[in-house]
Amino acid sequence: xxxxxxxxxxxxxxxxxxxxxxxxxxxxxxxxxxxxxxxxxxxxxxxxxxxxxxxxxxxxxxxxxxxxxxxxxxxxxxxxxxxxxxxxxxxxxxxxxxxxxxxxxxxxxxxxxxxxxxxxxxxxxxxxxxxxxxxxxxxxxxxxxxxxxxxxxxxxxxxxxxxxxxxxxxxxxxxxxxxxxxxxxxxxxxxxxxxxxxxxxxxxxxxxxxxxxxxxxxxxxxxxxxxxxxxxxxxxxxxxxxxxxxxxxxxxxxxxx
Length: 257
Description:
14 helices; about 75% helix; mainly alpha; elongated
């Protein structure tokens, strides 16, 4: 640990290699640090300078560590997955979830969950959504749309084509397509999401369906379907008006009138 704190990059990777060697021998110690909660996240954190965690940039050293663990333990090792999830959760709560350095970690999570559970699994879909949101934050629209589309496809195969889970993923994809003004692509995606929401929830007070309505209203306005857009805007306002977590959607809808 002292080597990791002081000499940093090269020593850090060497320490992680020792960690991996010890894990293969099924020992509970990781370079002198105890493995906790089924992951090595706590040990990795102890190797990181405190300033690195507080700077909203987890640092390339974490990515190096995860690469060492993946190569040493295997992409489907439960300890690797638990470690990634713990690190991602930490970045979420410290506000650094959109750090550039976190993208390879999320990509590792997608690979690990796919190898452990198979391609069609809810946790793989969740990891794809996490990756899509990360790309979206950095303005990487095509990568974000692709990841969200894959998540919707997986959820459709796992939960059914008319499941709320698939509708939720379709809504995220459609909202993003609307944001980047790809209206022709967005309309069928949003229409399908809304149809599922209406069938399952009668389009009752639901934040996800309200967001889909608002995006679809915008699409209809920009494709010269003003009458349909106006009707849907009024429905959006009625739907979102009573939802505390839909105030942004409500504001968006009111602005379109």
